[in-house]
Amino acid sequence: MNDQKLSKYFKIGDNIQRAIDHRGETQKWLADKMTKKAHKEGYPNKSFDRQHINRWCRNRNVPSTTNMSWIADILDCTVEEIITGNFEWDPSHSLISDLKEDPIVNQEIEGILNTVVNVCEEGELGEAKTKRYRSLVEDKIDSIINYISS
After folding, report:
1. Sign of dihedral through CA atoms 41, 42, 43, 44?
2. What value, to the nearest 5°, has the Cα angle with vertex 93 and ends 24 and 137?
3. What is the pTM assigned to this prediction?
4. Of 5-14, 36-45, 132-141, which has the strongest mean pLDDT?
5. How sure is the predictor about 1, in pLDDT bands with cuts at 50, 70 and 90?
6. Burial class (CB in 10 A: 0-12, 13-18, 19+), 47
7. Where is average pLDDT lowest: 25-29, 71-75, 96-100, 112-116?
8. Which of 4, 14, 94, 98 has its CA at a distance of 20 to 30 angstroms from the CA of residue 125?
């Protein structure tokens, strides 16, 4: 899956920033912790600075799988929570868990995920296709919202 497309759909950077804020910490704090973690894991020449973390938090870059795992460990959450933004400590998390049990919501979410996978599998898209897929995803999200509201 293309990292840039994954980031656009899931706003991973926004979720990292939310988790940092929830802990009452800063991007600099996470950078320092990431550097210590890298050294502890056997990467003595690897270091992170605030700008590195800032690029993730602004959705400019996506952390590697290893870095994502370290971020989750440092921020006391799971990689899935970082990707989806459905943090256990978030009050809306229980609502999301309840909705996952609803078959209609599940069907719509499956449709959204299939659309995202199709976008990611097709590689670089032209502007017209990107708009079309975005429109399809937005329509499916609207369907979920309308269903929940009724």
Report:
1. positive
2. 110
3. 0.58
4. 36-45
5. very low
6. middle
7. 96-100
8. 14
Q: Report the alpha-carbon distance of residue 109 to residue 47 in Å, rounded.
A: 38
Structure tokens at 121: 């599998």
Three-class SS state of 52? helix
Residue bearing tokens 């499916």: 140
Label residues 28-45 b or e (16+ Cβ within 10 Å = b). Answer: eebbbbbbebbeeeeeee
Give the count of beta carbons closer than 10 Å to the beta carbon of residue 127.
Answer: 7
Tokens (6 digits) for 19: 């988790």
Confidence (pLDDT) at 36: 96
Written as six digits, the tokens of 127 are 């502007």
| C-alpha–C-alpha distance, residues 3 and 86, integer Å | 19
Q: What are phi and psi of 90, to 5 degrees?
A: -80, 125
| CA–CA separation, 63 and 150 (whole Å) | 38
Alpha helix ranges (H) inside the chain: 3-10, 12-22, 27-40, 50-57, 65-74, 79-84, 93-100, 103-121, 127-149
